[in-house]
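JOB MANIFEST
job_type = single_chain_structure
chain_count = 1
residues = 348
[input]
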Amino acid sequence: MGRHKLVDKAMTEMSDSNLEKPTIIQQAMASCCGAIITSLLVSPLDVVKTRLQAQSSPFPKGKCFVYSSGLMDHICVCENGNSKAWYKKPGNFKGTLDAFVKIIRIEGIKSLWSGLPPTLIMALPNAMIYFTLYDQLREALKYRLKKGDEYIPVLAGSLSRFSSLTVVSPLELIRTRMQHRKLSYKQLYLCVSTQVAADGWFSLWRGWSSTVLRDIPFSAMYWYNYERFKKMMCKQVGGHEPTFFIAFTSGAASGSIAAVITQPFDVVKTHRQTALWESETLEIPQRDSTSTWAVMRKVVASNGITGLFAGIIPRLCKVAPACAIMISTYEYGKSFFSHLNEKMNQRP
């Protein structure tokens, strides 16, 4: 009889703790808020970087460049020389800080978020799927495996990134094509249906493989290190849940490590995706092989092994704060909803 009471008590405690955990909707809301805050704080860095690049080497029509909202990378196709696109505005900047000051003073502070609204349409669902699915998979794997969870973050992080990329990749391709060709929705539908009829449904995932090769190793390393750093720091301060500072520091450190290790794949991804789009926009057939190893060999032949780590400092300056801000705001959002659920459950 006493044994049954103990089991019932344990089951009641488990159900209460589950009630206090954020629901899937609340996790999605927390990730959405985190994504918006991250984009608002990080995208100005990329706007300034792009303006400085365009000043030193003006982008010709059809040229492609990568724009980052802090959450995901987007390919942008340059318009003609007479266009008033944000990246073509004259600036006469002397450096990064000078660019920030002059853009705010001359063009207004809103110019620091140039190009952000269209990319958020893709970045928000991507972040919501990625972070919500990660938490759901991690909990499910912990329950199924019922043993040490050291490698669960690796599997959950890889699967959630694979899923979010697979869902968003065709939408991002359509967004880029719509931006480049200035298509109406009817013209876009005809364009996509013609492409599918000619090349099959897989043509909508063009450029997906190069992103997967970079992002899945990044996610696996990021979540593995993040969970380890978080657990280690929580143990040191004697807490069960991470504070904002613990999440921020763990996110920055794990994001930096993953960024350095996956930098060669980032270089390859940029080369492959810009080459793919420039071959379409400039109507130049691709003669060279665009496989990952072919691009790596070409980069090493041109610039040596250091060519595979080109742009590592700018990437770290973007990835570290983006990872830190996103995960800390996401954890804060989940903590807020957990306390809210706890208060709701205590009501008579």
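[summary]
Residues 225 and 286 are 39 Å apart (CA to CA).
Residues 312-346 form the longest helix (35 residues).
exit_status = 0
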